[in-house]
Amino acid sequence: MKKNERISVITKILSDHPNEVFSYNYFTDLLEAGKSSVCEDVAIVKNAIELTGTGYVETFSGASGGVVYHPQVTSAEEVSILKEIADQLQSPARKIQGGFVYYSDILSNPRYSKNIGRIIASKYGEMGIEYVVTTETKGIPVAMETAHYLNVPMGLIRRSNRVTEGATTSVNYISGSSNKIKTMYLSRRIDLKDKKVLVIDDFMKGGGTAKGMTNLMEEVGAEVMGICVIFVTRSPAEKLVENFTPLIWMDDENLEAGLRVSLHSEAEN
Amino acid sequence: MKKNERISVITKILSDHPNEVFSYNYFTDLLEAGKSSVCEDVAIVKNAIELTGTGYVETFSGASGGVVYHPQVTSAEEVSILKEIADQLQSPARKIQGGFVYYSDILSNPRYSKNIGRIIASKYGEMGIEYVVTTETKGIPVAMETAHYLNVPMGLIRRSNRVTEGATTSVNYISGSSNKIKTMYLSRRIDLKDKKVLVIDDFMKGGGTAKGMTNLMEEVGAEVMGICVIFVTRSPAEKLVENFTPLIWMDDENLEAGLRVSLHSEAEN
What we know:
The structure is a homodimer. In chain A, about 40% of the residues lie in helices and about 25% in strands. Chain A is of the alpha/beta class. Chain A folds into two domains: about 5-70, Orthogonal Bundle (Arc Repressor Mutant, subunit A); about 75-269, Rossmann fold. Chain A has a six-stranded mixed β-sheet with strand order 7-6-10-11-12-13, with helices on both faces. In chain A, strands 1-3-2 form a three-stranded antiparallel β-sheet. Chain A has a two-stranded antiparallel ribbon with strand order 4-5. In chain A, helix 4 (about 75-90) crosses helix 6 (about 110-125). The termini of chain A are far apart. Chains A and B meet through helix 1, helix 3, helix 6, helix 7 and strand 7 of A and helix 1, helix 3, helix 6, helix 7 and strand 7 of B.
C-alpha cells in the first residue's frame, strides 16, 4: 500500500472509532508498513484532522504507544448547527395544539442527531464519562450519537416496566407535561455502580424527568457527571434540577406570536 | 495544504457523510487546490477506501461532477459482526423470566448498532430508499444508523398517541408478545406519500408489529421497499408478513437448554 493510501486508511479508521485507542502495532500489521512510516503517516493525519476543526488526534509514544481521535466542535460550528435547528423551530407550522412545538423529526434526522451528539461529546469528552443514559423516546438518537463519540455504551431508561428488560430499579418522578407522578425503570442488568454517567434529555420544562434520572442514578450508585438537555423552556425559571447544560432555550410564553428561540452557547460567548 | 493532508481531509469528509454527493468544486474551494489535483486525490481515496472493504467511492465526471461514498459490508464482515452478537445472546445470564432473552444492551451499544446499521444499509443501498421507519423503542438506534448510512431521515412510529407528535395516522395491530390488539401512531407531519420506505424492526415473533407497520405505510401512501428485522424467532414458522430479511434467527423452543442462535447470512451462503 502506498503512503497516500495508508494515510486515507488511517484517517478512515480513526474517524470511524472516536475515543478508541489504536496501537501503532495495529497499523503496522494492517498496513504492512514499518513503525517509522506509520508514525509519519499518523503525524500527517493528526495535522489534517486538526485543520478541519473536527477534533484532535492524541499520540502516545513508547512500547505501549498508540493513537486516538477525540472529536470536537468549534464554538462557531456549534452556534451554526444549533442556530439552524432553532430557526426551524420558529416555523409557525411547528405549533401543536396545547402549546407544544413539534421537533421529533429534527431529532430523528441523522444529520441533526449526529451534530448534536458531537456537540455534547465535545463538552464532556475530557470528563472520563463511562455511560450515557437517557429516558425514552425522542432523545435516544442524540444519546446514542453522544455515546458513539465518547466510545461508551448507552443505558436506556424506560417509562413503563417491560418484561424484556428483566428485573428493574425504579423511581417515581413528576412528569412536567402532565404534572402527574409517574415511574421510570432501569434494567438491573445495566450495572452503573460507581460509573461516571452523563444524563441526556431532549426536553425540559419543570425538570421532573431530569430530577427522576438523577434520583435513579443515585439509587444505582452512579456518579452523575453532567446533565445535558437539548431544548429547555424559559419558564418556569426554577427547575427541579440545578446544574444542567441547555443547548437551546425556548420561550413559549406567547406561542401564538411565534416561538422565540435562543442558543445557550451564544449567551455565554 | 499538502497533498497528503488533502487526502486525509477528503477521506474524513466522505466517510462522515455516506451517500452524500460532494461536487469537485466543493473540494477545490475547501482545499484551495486545482481540479486536477483534487481528481487525483479522490482517485487515491477511492482506492484506499475500497482496500479497507468498508464501501466504494463513486465519481461523476463533467461540469456537474462529484464524489459519493457508499458504505458496504463484505459478507465475511457481516458474518463476523452478527456472530459476535449471536454468541452473546447464548449466555445463560441473558435468560429472562417468561421465555425472553435480554438484548437491550446490545442494541444500545453504539458499536453494535452502528455495525448492524451498516449491514442493513449495505443490503438496501441501491434501492433508492427515501425514509427509514421503525416502531419505538429498542430498534431506534439501529434504524437511526441505517438512516445515517443511507443519508435519509428516520420516521418514528409511536406505540401510544403523544401530544408532541401533533395529528397522527393510526392503525391497529396484534402485539406478538401479549397477543392483544394495540394501536400504533405516525405523526401526520411526516410525509411519506409516494416515498420509498425501508421498515426496520428489532424483534419478530408472530410478525404483528411488522404487519402493522406495513399497513400503516399503506395508509400513508408509502411504498415499502423492504422489511429488515434484527432478531427473528424460529417459531411460529408462519409469520404475519411474508417478505422480510432476518439477520439473526432465535430458536427458543427449549430456552432452558440454552438459546440456539443462527445467522441468516450463513444459511444463505
